[in-house]
């Protein structure tokens, strides 16, 4: 009995001439890679277990999940990986390169019939060129780095025959969404799927990538295409050498065979929450959108960008709608620039970012907020995956058309005038007089244990680091106070409600972030005493009714960390109850006292 595509690839990379589903074999891995997401854990495993690198020429890092380097946690992780790579001489495709799996193809690292593993769950995108690609956890990848092999259970194979003619308006993304509609998220679970058909043979590399990239969403191990001549030519040019063609044996055995009529496929969208929950796009037209996204490993290729540019040329994105476009690789970005596509995007009002995974990995543009409606070319729209709003998945042409229309539509049904956001006519202005409201006045004398921090220039990044700026709920801010102040990283675990913080000059300098004030309120700190405050910080604290007070000198107070002190906001007296001493501080101004007593500026 002959071998399927997956069986042939695995057999060629193992010590076995013949394998069958269920066999567990060691596979030689041609390309072993880790991303900035997962890469630091791979490094940690190698170092913790004192492993080496089997072959640096086959080992790579790809920084694609945060290519802007804008997140400090990612920046730290990327530098950990860079230092490790320098130590061993490992090639790093840094933040300027784009999506790692796409880079593997364009750089000729992955070839038809080859094997690759990485920390990307969409590594099975390599099925587009007839290669075996798998996303794996950090321990597996560390083992591949160290040994050059991983164990793998040979999956059963399924054949899908797409019969009939492909309708002219059906994109590769529509083919994928139709397959998701037919098979759902688990009917192909654990299978290696091969796709055949007269129209399939005509699919371009970019179209194959779109379809293969959503194998994960179908639950499949991989979607494999037999390379056509276009794919072979591309891969030979990228690899710089002649390549052997690979295809399944004529007598290969498939656990299941599905015959599907491609001519019946329709243009679709995935409804928010699940890629396989699809509907005909005509049934969802007129759905108002806030944003649109074109990119990801599914639809960030040059053909996708050309299609978007065709529709956007000489048109404008609808008022109030944000269109974000992210090419999958820097090579494609540059090609789009050379072809004039970037100018079309910018002229239309779109935001174009540098190449990478974009919103799918939460490390770049493409995320949305609560209540936001997004139409996206991404591969996933699970709740929270691309933000806290609702995400519809569709083809690049549908996304571009929808961005122009201001609602979900198709390129043959773009209105002459876009839908716009109108003010809410139900909003009523408050006519209630603030002078009639009753307020509970806050105490003007407080007592508490003092935290005596003998430092000047404690800035807002030390108080509340900018990596936490997405936090907007006051109740959630407390745990992050001082976690970037050396020696006080455990402040929030040790402080108690009613404690007093006493510092020196220029407390709260730097950023205007309100969280650096509100975090102390969340912790129940009763007052912050300083010789002076940053100007913006002082205003923020006063307006938020967070008690702050200045002093001129502490001489004579005999203050030690942990002493019990009492502070009178109206008189400015600072009394050390533990030592029975006191000094004169600067009392609240009339304005500060009024705002404090009434609970804040509002």
What does this structure look like?
This protein has 19 helices and 25 strands. With 602 residues, the chain is an alpha/beta fold. The strands form six sheets. The protein has a seven-stranded mixed beta barrel with strand order 19-20-21-22-25-24-23. Strands 4-3-2-5-6 form a five-stranded parallel beta sheet, sandwiched between helices. A five-stranded parallel beta sheet has the order 16-15-14-17-18, covered by helices on one side. Strand 8 (157-163), helix 6 (172-183) and strand 9 (192-196) form a beta-alpha-beta unit. Helix 11 packs across helix 13 and helix 11 packs parallel to helix 14.
Task: Give a brief description.
The chain is built from 19 helices and 25 strands. By secondary structure, the protein is α/β, with parallel strands linked by helices. Strand 24 and strand 25 (581-586) form a beta hairpin.
CATH homology-level superfamily of the largest domain = Aconitase, domain 3
Task: Report the CATH architecture of the largest domain.
Answer: 2-Layer Sandwich
Poorly predicted tracts of residues: none
**Shape field:** elongated
């Amino acid at each position: 009995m002959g071998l399927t595509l997956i069986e042939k690839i695995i057999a060629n990379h193992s010590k076995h001439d013949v394998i069958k589903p269920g066999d567990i074999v060691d596979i030689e891995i041609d390309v072993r890679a880790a991303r900035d997401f997962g890469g630091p854990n791979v490094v940690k495993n190698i170092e913790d277990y004192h492993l080496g690198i089997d072959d640096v020429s086959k080992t790579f890092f790809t920084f694609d999940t945060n290519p802007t380097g804008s997140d400090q946690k990612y920046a730290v992780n990327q530098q950990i990986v860079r230092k490790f790579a320098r130590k061993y001489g490992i090639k790093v495709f840094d933040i300027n390169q784009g999506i790692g799996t796409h880079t593997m193809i364009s750089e000729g690292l992955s070839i038809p019939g080859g094997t690759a593993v990485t920390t990307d769950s969409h590594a099975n995108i390599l099925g587009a060129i007839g290669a075996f690609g798998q996303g794996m956890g950090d321990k597996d990848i560390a083992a591949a780095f160290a040994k050059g092999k991983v164990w793998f259970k040979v999956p059963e194979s399924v054949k899908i025959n797409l019969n009939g003619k492909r309708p002219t308006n059906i994109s590769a993304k529509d083919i994928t969404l139709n397959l998701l509609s037919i098979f759902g998220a688990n009917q192909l679970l654990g299978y290696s799927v091969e796709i055949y058909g007269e129209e399939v043979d005509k699919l371009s590399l970019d179209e194959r990538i779109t379809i293969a990239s959503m194998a994960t969403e179908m639950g499949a191990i991989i979607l494999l295409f037999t390379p056509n001549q276009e794919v072979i030519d591309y891969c030979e040019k990228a690899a710089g050498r002649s390549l052997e063609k690979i295809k399944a044996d004529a007598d290969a055995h498939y656990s299941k065979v599905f015959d599907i009529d491609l001519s019946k496929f329709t243009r679709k969208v995935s409804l928010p929450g699940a890629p396989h929950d699809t509907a005909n796009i005509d049934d969802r037209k007129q759905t108002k959108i806030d944003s649109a996204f074109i990119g990801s490993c599914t639809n960030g290729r040059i053909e996708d960008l050309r299609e978007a540019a065709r529709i956007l040329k000489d048109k404008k994105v609808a008022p109030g709608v944000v269109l974000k476009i992210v090419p999958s690789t820097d090579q494609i970005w540059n090609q789009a620039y050379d072809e004039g596509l970037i100018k079309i995007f910018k002229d239309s009002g779109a935001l174009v970012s540098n190449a990478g995974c974009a919103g799918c990995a939460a490390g770049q543009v493409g995320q949305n907020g609560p209540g936001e409606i997004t139409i996206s070319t991404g591969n996933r729209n699970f709740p929270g995956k691309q933000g806290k709003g609702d995400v519809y998945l569709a083809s690049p042409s549908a996304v571009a058309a929808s961005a122009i229309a201001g609602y979900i539509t198709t390129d043959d049904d773009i209105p002459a005038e876009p839908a716009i956001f109108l003010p809410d006519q139900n909003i009523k202005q408050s006519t209630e007089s603030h002078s009639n409201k009753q307020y509970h006045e806050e105490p003007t004398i407080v007592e508490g244990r003092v935290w005596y921090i003998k430092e000047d220039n404690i800035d807002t990044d030390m108080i509340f680091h900018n990596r936490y700026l997405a936090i907007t709920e006051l109740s959630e801010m407390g745990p992050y106070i001082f976690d970037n102040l050396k020696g006080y990283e455990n402040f929030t675990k040790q402080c108690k409600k009613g404690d007093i913080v006493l510092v020196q000059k220029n407390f709260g300098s730097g950023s205007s972030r309100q969280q650096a004030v509100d975090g102390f309120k969340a912790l129940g700190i009763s007052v912050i005493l300083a010789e002076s405050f940053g100007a913006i910080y002082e205003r923020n604290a006063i307006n938020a009714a967070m008690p702050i007070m200045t002093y001129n000198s502490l001489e004579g107070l005999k203050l030690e960390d942990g002493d019990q002190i009492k502070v009178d906001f109206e008189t400015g007296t600072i009394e050390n109850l533990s030592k029975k001493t006191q000094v004169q501080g600067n009392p609240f101004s009339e304005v500060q006292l009024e705002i404090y007593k009434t609970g804040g500026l509002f």
